[in-house]
Amino acid sequence: MTLTTTTGPATSVAQAFFCLLLCIPWGSSCPPSCQCTERAGAKAVLCSSQHLEEIPKDIPRDVVFLKLDANSITRIPSNAFRHLSHLEEIDLSRNAIEKIDRAAFKGVAAGLRSLDLSSNRIRSIPKEALLALNARLRLANNPWHCECALQEVLWEARLELDSVQDITCHTAPRQEYVGKPLLQVLDAGVNFCSVRQRTMDVAMFVAMFAWFAMLIAYVVCYVRHNREDSCRHRDYLSSLPSAQPRADTASTAL
């Protein structure tokens, strides 16, 4: 006897639905308030102007382009993008970012091509967070405090040329640098790293002088204390009754 299997419409639909589920990659869900699209085979997550206060946790792992601009994000924590190994572009412009952790971009340093941090509230940034990146950086329109770390970023990182002039000193060690583009200040011969080195040298000199003064004070106190002990011991010996008169009396009696 030969058994024949017939496939009805309901069975075909079920099989097609099952195949569709198998084709959907893990982690491809889209974060709330975001739009997930695909451009020429590259996935993009668009979360612009969504009043976000932090970076979404459920971004698909295979995202290539990530737009988080025009939100209210205040911080980029360590390992914020570590699971996004395919990421090539991040747009974090026009947020309220004030703090960037040292390991904020750990895990995406190799493949990242573009990082936009312009128009935020960044005053300073750990150089370790940016110097490991190969990405083109946009850092313009932030209230920068001009210091050695920012100078090293300017010289060593890959900055977008059209945005370098907009990296302005909002605060600086000297008032005359405030309001000027950092590149202009550096071109004038200012070296914030040498200023920091001089400050460290002065602090070290002050610390050494204080240590030497404490050593001298200890020696003086030690000598004075020993002198006082010697004086007390001498006074004690002089106060003891002398044995010589008794010897004289004994000889007279004989």
UniProtKB/TrEMBL annotation:
PROSITE patterns: LRR (PS51450). Residues 29-65 form the LRRNT domain. GO terms for cellular component: plasma membrane. InterPro entries: Leu-rich_rpt (IPR001611), Leu-rich_rpt_typical-subtyp (IPR003591), LRR_dom_sf (IPR032675), LRR_TM_domain-containing (IPR050541), LRRNT (IPR000372). It holds the Pfam family LRRNT. Keywords: Leucine-rich repeat, Membrane, Repeat, Signal, Transmembrane, Transmembrane helix. Belongs to the LRRC3 family. This is Leucine-rich repeat-containing protein 3. It comes from Lamprotornis superbus. The lineage of its organism: Eukaryota, Metazoa, Chordata, Craniata, Vertebrata.
